[in-house]
Design goal:
Blueprint (H helix, E strand, L loop, with lengths): L25 H8 L4 H7 L4 E10 L4 H7 L6 E10 L2 E11 H4 L11 H5 L6 E2 L3 E6 L11 E11 L2 E9 L10
Antiparallel strand pairs: 1-2, 2-3, 3-7, 4-6, 5-6, 6-7
Family: Belongs to the UbiC family.
Catalytic activity: chorismate = 4-hydroxybenzoate + pyruvate
Pathway: Cofactor biosynthesis; ubiquinone biosynthesis
């Protein structure tokens, strides 16, 4: 597994609606717009799943995160993790979480996937996705493909909103032809 990740990695990119993206690959589109738990999908495709916490703590939000989350959420923590399948990072995830949720419903996450709590609590509702592309060099020195794809959505509960953003890394099956 890659060991040169340093918290915070960040994800300061331009986000766009899925309607503004022309998809040439329906398999990739399926991965990007799947509303189920990404963690569960990755787990179903490997023998050994591991969530690696790169870091969590109070951090500055990127401008696009501030604009999408709103300034009324108070202090936030940023949590960055890797979803690994059989020892290989498939997904980089960055979550921006209000302290009210970190010290409440989402306390003591540790190496537990955030999605496990979000998808097992019907009080959390999810927004539509926004998508981004990044150069492959954003997360790797290996020029495997021209662009990496990411997605983000907001989860809301009791007036608090959080952002969960995920980038599919080069080994992810999202890039395989279906």
């Amino acid at each position: 597994m890659q060991s040169n990740w340093s918290f915070p990695v960040g994800l300061d990119v331009h986000w766009q609606s899925p309607q503004s993206v022309a998809f040439s690959d329906p398999y990739l589109k399926n991965w990007l717009l799947d509303t189920g738990s990404l963690t569960e999908r990755v787990q179903s495709l490997c023998r050994q799943f591991e969530l690696v916490v790169l870091g969590q703590g109070q951090q500055q939000m990127h401008r696009a995160e501030q604009d999408w989350l709103g300034s009324d959420q108070g202090s936030v923590d940023v949590r960055e993790v890797l979803l690994c399948a059989d020892g290989v990072p498939w997904v980089f995830a960055r979550s921006v979480i209000p302290h009210a949720l970190i010290y409440g419903e989402l306390a003591d996450l540790g190496s537990e996937p955030l999605g496990k709590r979000l998808f097992n609590d019907a009080r959390f509702t999810r927004s539509a996705f926004e998508l981004c592309t990044l150069p492959s060099t954003a997360f790797s020195d290996n020029l495997v493909r021209k662009a990496l794809w990411g997605r983000r959505s907001r989860f809301a509960r009791d007036g608090y909103r959080m952002i969960v953003a995920e980038v599919f890394l080069p080994p992810a099956p999202a890039y395989e032809k279906g």
